[in-house]
Structure formats: C-alpha cells, structure tokens
Amino acid sequence: MKRKILLTGRTGQIGSELLRLLPEIGEVVAPDRQELDLLNPDSIRRAAREIRPEFIVNAAAFTAVDAAETQEAQAHAINANAPGVLAEEAKKIGAAVIHYSTDYVFDGSKRTPYDEADSAAPINVYGKTKLAGEQAVCGAGVPHLIFRTAWVYSTRGRSFLRTILGLATEKEELRVVRDQFGTPTWSRDIAEATVKILAQLTSPGSSVANSFSRVSGIYHLTAAGETTWCDFARAILEEAAQLSPAIEWFDKATRGRSLITKQIIPITTFEYPTRASRPLYSVLANSRLRQTFGIELPHWRTQVHLVFELERSS
Ligand SMILES: NC(=O)c1ccc[n+]([C@@H]2O[C@H](COP(=O)([O-])OP(=O)(O)OC[C@H]3O[C@@H](n4cnc5c(N)ncnc54)[C@H](OP(=O)(O)O)[C@@H]3O)[C@@H](O)[C@H]2O)c1
C-alpha cells in the first residue's frame, strides 16, 4: 500500500513545489484552506483523522511579516497553535511531522551564521509565533523535522522576486535595503531537499518511528552564501535583462511592461521603516543538514540565474 502524505499550504511558494514532488514518496492528499483551515483546530483534527497519513507536511503559515504585527491572534493561531494540533494528531496516528520555520526566530545580533544551537530571540510577532510553532512540534513527542529556511522566493505568489520585477516596470530608481544580511532561497530547492530527505527516511520495512529516531529535530535549510536585499534585487534585474523573449511568469510579474529601472540605490533599514523589525543578520549555517543527510543547497546567486535560465529554456 502506498504511504499517505497530508500536505498543507498547496498554493504557497514551498507547498506548490511539494505538491509536484511529493508523489515520489507517496500518495499526496493536499486539502485547500476551505477543506483544512489552520485557524480551526476541529478542521485540522478532522482532516488528520480521515486521511490518517504517515507524514504530515505543513507548508502553510501566516507569512505576512508586517501584517502579523497587527494580526497577532491570527498569526499565532496559524503559526503556533495549528502546528501543535497537527503534531498532537500525528502522535495519535503514528505519523511524522515535517514543518517549516524561519531565520526570523533570531534577533540578528550575530555576525557569523546562526546554527541550530544558537538561542532564538525573535524581534517581531511573526518570528515569535514561528518559534512557538517550533516549540509546539518539538514538545509533542512526535517524530519530526523542522526546516528553518530564509528569504524564500519563487516565480509565483507573493515573493521578493516578483515584487522587484513589478517595481522595475514603474520606477527608474529603486531604493533597496543594504544592511540586512541573509540568504535568498528558491522554494523549489527547499522542496527538493525535503523530498530527498524523506526518501532517505522511507526505506522499505522501516517504521516512521525507527527512521526518525536518530534525526528528529531542527535543521537549517537555506541556499549557500549570503547577501543583502539590495544585491538580491540587483541580481534579479541582471538576470531579467538577459531574458528575451519573455516568458509566462515574467509577463505576469511585469504585466507585459518593459523594465525601466536604471539604478538600484542602497539604503539603510532606518531609511525604510516597516511595521515589523527585521534582524540585521540572519544567515543560517547548514552544516547539521549536510552532516545528517549529506544535502547541501547550491549558492543563492547560481539559483537566481537558474530560475531565469530554466524558464528561458522551457
Ligand atoms: N516566505 C519566506 O520568505 C519564508 C522565509 C522563511 C521561512 N518561511 C516559512 O516557509 C513556510 C512556507 O512559506 P511560503 O513562503 O511558501 O508561504 P506562502 O507562499 O505565503 O503560502 C502560505 C500558504 O499557507 C496557506 N495558509 C495560510 N493560512 C491558512 C489557513 N488558515 N489554513 C490553511 N492554509 C493556510 C496559504 O493558503 P492560501 O493560498 O489559501 O492563502 C498558502 O498555501 C512557512 O512555514 C514560512 O513560515 C518562509
């Protein structure tokens, strides 16, 4: 019998890539928000009990970092309470939980990459709710993997990549923050790494509890290298300038209009006030992931090139 996987967040950046790739591991059941609403614990319980999956992959979240400051109850319900309910249900049916978290659990005071042993001390509501979600999953006594990732982008949905392309059709000069350091990570790379890891943990004849017994825990999972939002924006526009003829997702992001930005001006965080504070440095060290699973993501800049290159040649 094929193993069943319950996937949340099928429409999201990571979730949509997982929806495509997870069938390599088993039969994917991916309810949408109407069928499984993370704001409603009963709907989570009902879905878990009806589907009885072997894995629950939670790619859904309240990801609007600034909006979380004014919608704390909702962010907490989705990012903290819901993963706890998923984990409780997983425990009852002997399933493992795969969950995603964020570099924003750190305060950004370090200047060398954060590893999993560093203390989390979030400085915004989103980070606090995501940390509470991690704690709920870890504390449920269920086999689990929590992947902390960062600066996720994709060619669909709300993402920095598409925002910059949209703005570049409107403004000759873009002012982008130069003093926050992190690592842009392509959602497809995160999904591919997740599926490779699950493939390692699903060898025939081995139970979920056995496979996860030595590996349950938190892992940092980002591309290699580091940059700033400003240099990330520059990289996007460098790649976009090579793009001819244009392709479907690019046309959607630009609404078919030409890019007119001539210059990206680096500014400080102070010059770009946002509702939520953001860590000035949130680069994550990925050595635990490499040592445990032998998996390492490519450099962020290579992948920005690849996103455009793949779409160009497809
Ligand atoms: N985006 C980033 O830069 C970033 C950085 C670090 C970590 N992460 C983490 O990575 C994970 C995936 O992020 P992402 O960027 O792929 O997310 P995303 O694109 O914002 O998608 C969020 C998903 O969650 C679903 N969702 C939201 N509220 C829901 C609810 N009440 N019930 C059911 N589903 C709900 C959304 O469904 P609808 O389509 O119905 O809204 C959507 O499918 C999250 O855990 C996030 O915290 C993201």
Describe, in short, the structure shown.
The chain has helices at 13-21, 41-51, 65-70, 72-93, 125-139, 160-167, 187-200, 208-213, 229-241, 248-254, 287-293, 300-313; strands spanning 4-8, 27-29, 55-58, 96-102, 144-149, 152-153, 173-177, 181-182, 185-186, 217-220, 227-228, 263-267. It is of the alpha/beta class and 314 residues long.
Task: Explain how this protein is built.
The strands form 4 sheets. Strands 2-1-3-4-5-10 form a 6-stranded parallel beta sheet, sandwiched between helices. A two-stranded parallel ribbon has the order 6-9. A two-stranded parallel ribbon has the order 7-12. The chain has helices at residues 13-21, 41-51, 65-70, 72-93, 125-139, 160-167, 187-200, 208-213, 229-241, 248-254, 287-293, 300-313, and strands spanning 4-8, 27-29, 55-58, 96-102, 144-149, 152-153, 173-177, 181-182, 185-186, 217-220, 227-228, 263-267. The protein has 12 helices and 12 strands. Helix 9 (229-241) runs parallel beside helix 12. It starts with a strand and ends with a helix. With 314 residues, it is an alpha/beta fold. It binds NADP nicotinamide-adenine-dinucleotide phosphate. NADP nicotinamide-adenine-dinucleotide phosphate is lined by residues 8-15, 33, 36-39, 59-63, 78, 100, 102, 130, 149-152, 157, 187.
Features:
314 residues, alpha/beta, two-stranded parallel sheet, 15% strand, binds NADP nicotinamide-adenine-dinucleotide phosphate
Order the strands across the largest sheet as they lie in space. Answer: 2-1-3-4-5-10
Strand fraction: 5-15%
Uncertain spans: none
Distinct ligands:
NADP nicotinamide-adenine-dinucleotide phosphate
Shape: globular
* Rg, nearest Å: 19 Å
SSE run? EHEHEHHEHEEHEEEHHEEHHEHH
Give the biggest beta sheet. Answer: 6 strands, parallel
Structural class: alpha/beta
**Considering DSSP H and I runs of 4 or more, what fraction of the residues is helical?**
40-55%
Average predicted local confidence, pLDDT: 94
Number of strands: 12
